[in-house]
User: What shape does this take?
Amino acid sequence: MADFENVTKAVVPAAGLGTRFLPATKATPKEMLPIVDKPAIQYVVEEAVSAGLLDVLMVTGRHKRSIEDHFDVAYELEDALRAKGDEERLSQVQELVDLATMHYVRQGEPKGLGHAVLCAKQHVGDEPFACLLGDDLIDPRDPLLKRMIEVRGTYGGSVIALMEVPREQVSLYGCAAIEATEQDDVVRVTDLVEKPPADEAPSNWAVIGRYVIDPAVFEVLENTPPGRGGEIQLTDALRTLASRGSDEGGPVHGVLFRGRRYDTGNKLDYLRTVVQFAAGRDDLAPEFIPWLREFLDQAGS
Ligand code: G1P
Assistant: This one.
Protein backbone atom coordinates (compact mmCIF):
# COMPACT_ATOMS: atom_id res chain seq x y z
CA MET A 1 0.00 0.00 0.00
CA ALA A 2 1.30 3.46 -0.88
CA ASP A 3 2.23 5.73 1.98
CA PHE A 4 -0.01 8.80 1.89
CA GLU A 5 -0.22 11.48 4.60
CA ASN A 6 -2.92 11.17 7.24
CA VAL A 7 -6.07 13.25 6.99
CA THR A 8 -6.47 15.29 10.19
CA LYS A 9 -8.36 18.43 9.20
CA ALA A 10 -11.97 19.04 8.25
CA VAL A 11 -13.27 22.05 6.38
CA VAL A 12 -16.94 22.94 6.73
CA PRO A 13 -18.26 25.62 4.37
CA ALA A 14 -20.96 27.56 6.23
CA ALA A 15 -21.11 30.94 4.57
CA GLY A 16 -24.34 30.58 2.57
CA LEU A 17 -27.16 33.09 3.05
CA GLY A 18 -29.81 30.43 3.61
CA THR A 19 -32.33 32.27 1.45
CA ARG A 20 -34.46 29.14 1.05
CA PHE A 21 -35.35 29.36 4.74
CA LEU A 22 -36.21 33.04 5.02
CA PRO A 23 -37.49 34.60 7.19
CA ALA A 24 -36.09 32.06 9.72
CA THR A 25 -32.58 32.74 8.44
CA LYS A 26 -32.74 36.52 8.47
CA ALA A 27 -30.85 36.74 11.77
CA THR A 28 -30.04 33.04 12.37
CA PRO A 29 -27.59 31.06 10.24
CA LYS A 30 -29.27 28.18 8.42
CA GLU A 31 -26.62 25.87 9.90
CA MET A 32 -28.13 26.59 13.32
CA LEU A 33 -31.64 25.42 12.42
CA PRO A 34 -32.41 22.57 14.82
CA ILE A 35 -32.93 18.97 13.84
CA VAL A 36 -35.05 18.22 16.92
CA ASP A 37 -32.78 19.76 19.58
CA LYS A 38 -29.37 19.95 17.92
CA PRO A 39 -28.38 22.45 15.26
CA ALA A 40 -27.60 20.77 11.95
CA ILE A 41 -23.98 21.96 12.08
CA GLN A 42 -23.37 20.04 15.32
CA TYR A 43 -24.16 16.72 13.62
CA VAL A 44 -21.62 17.61 10.94
CA VAL A 45 -18.87 18.45 13.44
CA GLU A 46 -19.66 15.26 15.38
CA GLU A 47 -19.33 13.27 12.17
CA ALA A 48 -15.91 14.79 11.45
CA VAL A 49 -14.78 13.98 14.98
CA SER A 50 -15.96 10.39 14.78
CA ALA A 51 -13.91 9.99 11.60
CA GLY A 52 -10.87 11.09 13.65
CA LEU A 53 -10.75 14.71 12.44
CA LEU A 54 -10.28 16.87 15.51
CA ASP A 55 -9.26 20.05 13.72
CA VAL A 56 -12.30 21.72 12.15
CA LEU A 57 -12.15 24.89 10.09
CA MET A 58 -15.45 26.56 9.44
CA VAL A 59 -15.71 28.91 6.50
CA THR A 60 -18.27 31.45 7.63
CA GLY A 61 -19.52 34.87 6.66
CA ARG A 62 -21.39 37.78 8.20
CA HIS A 63 -24.18 36.97 10.68
CA LYS A 64 -22.63 33.61 11.59
CA ARG A 65 -21.47 34.49 15.10
CA SER A 66 -23.92 32.11 16.75
CA ILE A 67 -22.08 29.18 15.17
CA GLU A 68 -18.90 30.24 16.97
CA ASP A 69 -20.83 30.74 20.20
CA HIS A 70 -22.36 27.30 19.92
CA PHE A 71 -18.94 25.61 20.08
CA ASP A 72 -17.57 28.00 22.72
CA VAL A 73 -17.80 28.17 26.52
CA ALA A 74 -21.09 29.65 27.78
CA TYR A 75 -20.19 30.71 31.34
CA GLU A 76 -23.55 32.17 32.37
CA LEU A 77 -25.47 29.17 31.07
CA GLU A 78 -23.06 26.76 32.75
CA ASP A 79 -23.36 28.64 36.06
CA ALA A 80 -27.15 28.57 35.84
CA LEU A 81 -27.25 24.83 35.09
CA ARG A 82 -24.73 24.14 37.86
CA ALA A 83 -26.80 26.17 40.35
CA LYS A 84 -29.87 24.11 39.40
CA GLY A 85 -27.93 20.88 39.74
CA ASP A 86 -28.81 19.96 36.14
CA GLU A 87 -25.72 17.85 35.55
CA GLU A 88 -27.01 16.21 32.40
CA ARG A 89 -27.58 19.43 30.48
CA LEU A 90 -24.40 20.92 31.94
CA SER A 91 -22.30 18.11 30.51
CA GLN A 92 -24.12 18.34 27.15
CA VAL A 93 -23.17 22.00 26.96
CA GLN A 94 -19.59 21.41 28.13
CA GLU A 95 -18.94 18.45 25.81
CA LEU A 96 -19.58 20.72 22.85
CA VAL A 97 -16.63 22.90 23.77
CA ASP A 98 -14.22 19.96 23.90
CA LEU A 99 -15.58 18.23 20.80
CA ALA A 100 -12.95 19.54 18.38
CA THR A 101 -10.47 22.36 17.94
CA MET A 102 -12.54 24.88 16.04
CA HIS A 103 -11.12 27.46 13.67
CA TYR A 104 -12.96 30.06 11.64
CA VAL A 105 -12.20 31.95 8.49
CA ARG A 106 -14.53 34.25 6.62
CA GLN A 107 -15.48 34.07 2.99
CA GLY A 108 -15.85 37.76 2.26
CA GLU A 109 -17.88 37.38 -0.91
CA PRO A 110 -20.26 34.55 -1.80
CA LYS A 111 -18.38 33.33 -4.88
CA GLY A 112 -19.33 29.67 -4.65
CA LEU A 113 -18.34 26.43 -2.94
CA GLY A 114 -14.99 26.26 -4.74
CA HIS A 115 -14.16 29.74 -3.49
CA ALA A 116 -15.22 28.79 0.06
CA VAL A 117 -12.81 25.83 -0.05
CA LEU A 118 -10.06 28.12 -1.35
CA CYS A 119 -10.52 30.23 1.80
CA ALA A 120 -9.21 27.20 3.74
CA LYS A 121 -5.87 27.20 1.90
CA GLN A 122 -3.79 28.90 4.56
CA HIS A 123 -5.13 26.80 7.42
CA VAL A 124 -4.94 23.49 5.59
CA GLY A 125 -1.51 23.98 4.02
CA ASP A 126 -0.03 21.07 2.12
CA GLU A 127 -2.12 18.25 3.60
CA PRO A 128 -5.09 16.31 2.33
CA PHE A 129 -8.28 17.39 4.11
CA ALA A 130 -11.91 16.43 4.41
CA CYS A 131 -14.71 18.76 3.38
CA LEU A 132 -18.22 18.31 4.80
CA LEU A 133 -21.25 20.21 3.51
CA GLY A 134 -23.76 21.07 6.18
CA ASP A 135 -26.88 20.49 4.09
CA ASP A 136 -26.15 16.76 3.98
CA LEU A 137 -26.36 14.69 7.15
CA ILE A 138 -24.99 11.15 7.10
CA ASP A 139 -26.41 8.64 9.55
CA PRO A 140 -23.70 7.75 12.11
CA ARG A 141 -24.74 4.10 11.70
CA ASP A 142 -23.47 4.23 8.08
CA PRO A 143 -20.01 5.74 8.45
CA LEU A 144 -18.85 7.17 5.14
CA LEU A 145 -16.01 9.57 5.86
CA LYS A 146 -13.83 6.93 7.52
CA ARG A 147 -14.14 4.75 4.45
CA MET A 148 -13.27 7.71 2.20
CA ILE A 149 -10.15 8.41 4.26
CA GLU A 150 -9.18 4.74 3.92
CA VAL A 151 -9.62 4.95 0.14
CA ARG A 152 -7.42 8.06 0.03
CA GLY A 153 -4.85 6.01 1.99
CA THR A 154 -4.88 3.39 -0.77
CA TYR A 155 -4.96 5.51 -3.91
CA GLY A 156 -3.87 9.04 -2.85
CA GLY A 157 -5.47 11.94 -4.72
CA SER A 158 -9.01 12.92 -3.84
CA VAL A 159 -12.10 10.91 -2.94
CA ILE A 160 -15.71 11.94 -3.44
CA ALA A 161 -18.92 10.34 -2.18
CA LEU A 162 -21.45 9.18 -4.76
CA MET A 163 -25.05 8.20 -4.33
CA GLU A 164 -27.35 6.77 -6.99
CA VAL A 165 -30.33 9.05 -7.67
CA PRO A 166 -33.21 8.89 -10.15
CA ARG A 167 -32.28 10.44 -13.52
CA GLU A 168 -34.63 13.37 -13.10
CA GLN A 169 -32.75 14.42 -9.94
CA VAL A 170 -29.19 14.52 -11.32
CA SER A 171 -29.59 18.18 -12.24
CA LEU A 172 -29.58 19.00 -8.51
CA TYR A 173 -26.09 17.57 -7.98
CA GLY A 174 -22.60 17.23 -9.30
CA CYS A 175 -22.58 14.11 -11.44
CA ALA A 176 -19.72 11.66 -12.13
CA ALA A 177 -18.61 9.44 -15.00
CA ILE A 178 -17.14 6.37 -13.38
CA GLU A 179 -15.16 3.18 -14.00
CA ALA A 180 -15.11 0.11 -11.78
CA THR A 181 -12.09 -0.76 -9.62
CA GLU A 182 -11.29 -4.06 -7.97
CA GLN A 183 -13.22 -2.90 -4.88
CA ASP A 184 -17.02 -3.14 -4.96
CA ASP A 185 -17.71 0.19 -3.30
CA VAL A 186 -14.93 2.19 -5.00
CA VAL A 187 -14.87 3.64 -8.51
CA ARG A 188 -12.41 5.67 -10.52
CA VAL A 189 -13.92 9.06 -11.48
CA THR A 190 -13.15 9.93 -15.10
CA ASP A 191 -15.30 13.05 -15.45
CA LEU A 192 -17.47 15.36 -13.36
CA VAL A 193 -20.18 17.85 -14.30
CA GLU A 194 -21.90 20.29 -11.97
CA LYS A 195 -25.71 20.02 -12.12
CA PRO A 196 -26.09 18.74 -15.69
CA PRO A 197 -29.49 18.56 -17.40
CA ALA A 198 -30.79 14.97 -17.05
CA ASP A 199 -30.20 14.15 -20.72
CA GLU A 200 -26.56 15.29 -20.60
CA ALA A 201 -25.60 13.59 -17.32
CA PRO A 202 -22.78 11.04 -17.62
CA SER A 203 -24.49 8.71 -15.09
CA ASN A 204 -26.98 8.85 -12.28
CA TRP A 205 -24.27 8.82 -9.62
CA ALA A 206 -24.62 12.11 -7.74
CA VAL A 207 -21.92 13.82 -5.69
CA ILE A 208 -23.00 14.15 -2.07
CA GLY A 209 -21.50 16.56 0.41
CA ARG A 210 -18.46 14.65 1.68
CA TYR A 211 -15.02 14.98 0.13
CA VAL A 212 -11.43 14.03 0.91
CA ILE A 213 -9.35 16.42 -1.12
CA ASP A 214 -5.73 16.59 -2.20
CA PRO A 215 -4.12 19.98 -1.42
CA ALA A 216 -3.37 20.36 -5.14
CA VAL A 217 -6.98 21.54 -5.33
CA PHE A 218 -5.97 25.00 -4.08
CA GLU A 219 -3.76 25.75 -7.08
CA VAL A 220 -6.49 24.36 -9.36
CA LEU A 221 -9.21 26.47 -7.70
CA GLU A 222 -7.11 29.59 -8.13
CA ASN A 223 -7.22 28.94 -11.86
CA THR A 224 -10.81 27.71 -12.13
CA PRO A 225 -13.11 30.24 -13.82
CA PRO A 226 -16.67 30.70 -12.58
CA GLY A 227 -18.85 27.82 -13.78
CA ARG A 228 -22.51 26.94 -13.27
CA GLY A 229 -24.45 29.82 -11.69
CA GLY A 230 -21.47 32.14 -12.22
CA GLU A 231 -19.81 30.57 -9.16
CA ILE A 232 -16.41 28.94 -8.68
CA GLN A 233 -17.38 25.29 -8.45
CA LEU A 234 -15.54 22.65 -6.43
CA THR A 235 -16.85 20.10 -8.94
CA ASP A 236 -14.96 21.85 -11.76
CA ALA A 237 -11.69 21.81 -9.80
CA LEU A 238 -12.14 18.11 -8.98
CA ARG A 239 -12.79 17.46 -12.66
CA THR A 240 -9.35 18.90 -13.42
CA LEU A 241 -7.78 16.72 -10.72
CA ALA A 242 -9.59 13.66 -12.11
CA SER A 243 -7.68 14.07 -15.36
CA ARG A 244 -4.29 14.31 -13.64
CA GLY A 245 -1.79 11.67 -12.60
CA SER A 246 -0.74 11.07 -9.02
CA ASP A 247 2.34 13.29 -9.40
CA GLU A 248 0.08 16.30 -10.04
CA GLY A 249 -2.63 15.86 -7.38
CA GLY A 250 -4.80 13.26 -9.14
CA PRO A 251 -6.57 10.91 -9.39
CA VAL A 252 -10.15 11.14 -8.08
CA HIS A 253 -11.95 8.09 -6.75
CA GLY A 254 -15.53 7.76 -5.62
CA VAL A 255 -16.97 5.78 -2.72
CA LEU A 256 -20.43 4.46 -3.60
CA PHE A 257 -22.64 5.28 -0.63
CA ARG A 258 -25.71 3.17 -0.08
CA GLY A 259 -26.44 4.26 3.49
CA ARG A 260 -28.81 6.75 5.02
CA ARG A 261 -28.40 10.40 4.04
CA TYR A 262 -30.65 13.23 5.13
CA ASP A 263 -30.99 16.45 3.23
CA THR A 264 -31.63 19.66 5.14
CA GLY A 265 -31.07 22.04 2.22
CA ASN A 266 -34.70 22.80 1.41
CA LYS A 267 -37.93 23.02 3.38
CA LEU A 268 -39.49 19.73 2.41
CA ASP A 269 -36.35 17.66 2.93
CA TYR A 270 -35.69 19.50 6.17
CA LEU A 271 -39.15 18.54 7.44
CA ARG A 272 -38.60 14.90 6.44
CA THR A 273 -35.27 14.90 8.25
CA VAL A 274 -36.72 16.34 11.45
CA VAL A 275 -39.53 13.76 11.46
CA GLN A 276 -37.09 10.89 10.78
CA PHE A 277 -34.75 12.00 13.56
CA ALA A 278 -37.63 12.46 16.02
CA ALA A 279 -39.01 9.04 15.14
CA GLY A 280 -35.60 7.51 15.85
CA ARG A 281 -35.25 9.05 19.31
CA ASP A 282 -35.96 6.81 22.31
CA ASP A 283 -37.08 9.79 24.39
CA LEU A 284 -39.57 11.06 21.80
CA ALA A 285 -40.65 8.17 19.58
CA PRO A 286 -43.02 6.42 22.07
CA GLU A 287 -45.24 9.50 22.11
CA PHE A 288 -44.38 11.05 18.77
CA ILE A 289 -45.06 8.06 16.50
CA PRO A 290 -48.60 7.25 17.77
CA TRP A 291 -49.42 10.97 17.55
CA LEU A 292 -48.07 11.14 14.00
CA ARG A 293 -50.13 8.10 13.00
CA GLU A 294 -53.29 9.60 14.40
CA PHE A 295 -52.54 12.95 12.79
CA LEU A 296 -52.06 11.33 9.39
CA ASP A 297 -55.20 9.22 9.77
CA GLN A 298 -57.19 12.35 10.47
CA ALA A 299 -55.52 14.30 7.68
CA GLY A 300 -56.35 11.49 5.24
CA SER A 301 -60.04 11.27 6.19
C1 G1P B 1 -23.13 21.26 -3.81
C2 G1P B 1 -22.17 20.82 -4.91
C3 G1P B 1 -22.77 19.69 -5.72
C4 G1P B 1 -23.18 18.55 -4.80
C5 G1P B 1 -24.10 19.07 -3.68
C6 G1P B 1 -24.35 17.96 -2.65
O1 G1P B 1 -24.24 21.87 -4.41
O2 G1P B 1 -21.86 21.92 -5.74
O3 G1P B 1 -21.86 19.21 -6.67
O4 G1P B 1 -23.82 17.54 -5.54
O5 G1P B 1 -23.52 20.18 -3.00
O6 G1P B 1 -25.26 18.36 -1.67
P1 G1P B 1 -25.34 22.74 -3.60
O7 G1P B 1 -26.33 21.76 -3.08
O8 G1P B 1 -24.59 23.44 -2.52
O9 G1P B 1 -25.93 23.66 -4.61
Summary: The radius of gyration is 20 Å. The mean pLDDT is 95.
